[in-house]
Design goal:
Elements (H helix, E strand, L loop, with lengths): L2 H22 L18 E3 H9 L4 H8 L7 H24 L6 E3 H25 L10 H25 L23 H17 L2 H28 L16
Antiparallel strand pairs: 1-2
Helix pairs in contact: 1-5, 1-8, 2-4, 2-5, 3-5, 4-6, 6-7, 7-8
């Protein structure tokens, strides 16, 4: 069986996982973060969990890119830079910014996310560095330019929104508060909105089924979670802004 056929089947596996994930999250809320609860097995320190589960998207992706036939070409390198902009921040910066003292993560969540990131890293890294082909003219193609712009805008929104959340608590402080500022003026989860923008941008910039599958999975995972967050805020805070939407300003 050729690697191209294997890759195609793994892309379809990601699409199937997106459909399954979306269906499951209609009847349950993943038990991590503010929704964590007992009864889901052993736990590990929250910061360690974040680093472990995100690490394949940096380490495995970088190795796969390095062994790719097109690794020295300018377009794959530009796409690599976009990918690493997100995942180095997510793996090596974000876990050390959040207030994790005493917090735990369900081990099964970390393991499941690790496995997905291994799959996702393979599908996307092998496409941009080996199986796909991009001429240098692709950097001027509207699909790349719009995709890269969406990715960078989404990244900025994601980081800014996380920063607002992190700054809600003073060192040693616990509990939750209503976030304000930035896109929190209109939606409860601008960090998720930013991440969805990133991977829609990635799908456009790569113009690939691999990128499309990841964007689809991101929406399938984060849309239900944004709704769960929004309900949580409404139930917890009587003065929560009633005009905020969950994920998309003025829409949803």
């Amino acid at each position: 069986m050729s690697e191209m056929l294997i890759h195609e089947r793994l892309v379809w596996l990601m699409v199937a996982l997106a459909v399954l994930t979306f269906a499951l999250l209609q009847v349950m809320t993943a038990p991590y973060g503010r929704h964590q609860r007992s009864g889901w097995g052993p736990t590990i320190p929250n910061r360690l969990g974040w680093i472990v589960m995100e690490s394949p998207a940096v380490v495995f992706f970088a190795w796969l890119f390095w062994i790719g036939e097109h690794r020295a070409e300018i377009v794959p390198q530009a796409l690599l830079a976009l990918w690493m902009l997100h995942y180095i921040q997510r793996t090596a910066v974000f876990p050390f910014r959040i207030h994790s003292r005493g917090k735990r993560m369900v081990l099964s969540i970390a393991v499941t996310a690790f496995a997905f990131n291994m799959l996702n890293a393979y599908v996307n890294a092998r496409w941009i560095s080996h199986l796909g082909e991009y001429s240098s003219n692709w950097l001027g193609d509207p699909r790349f330019l719009v995709g890269a712009a969406l990715f960078l805008a989404g990244w900025l929104i994601n980081v800014q929104s996380d920063t607002i959340l992190i700054r809600l608590r003073a060192p040693g402080e616990s509990g939750y508060k209503i976030p304000r500022g930035g896109l929190y003026r209109w939606i409860s989860c601008p960090n998720y909105f930013g991440e969805i923008l990133e991977w829609i941008g990635w799908a456009l910039a790569t113009w690939s089924t691999a990128g499309f599958a990841f964007a689809l999975y991101t929406v399938a995972n984060l849309l239900p979670r944004a709704r769960a967050h929004h309900r949580w805020y409404l139930e917890r805070f009587e003065d929560y802004p009633s005009d905020r939407k969950a994920l998309i300003p003025f829409v949803l």
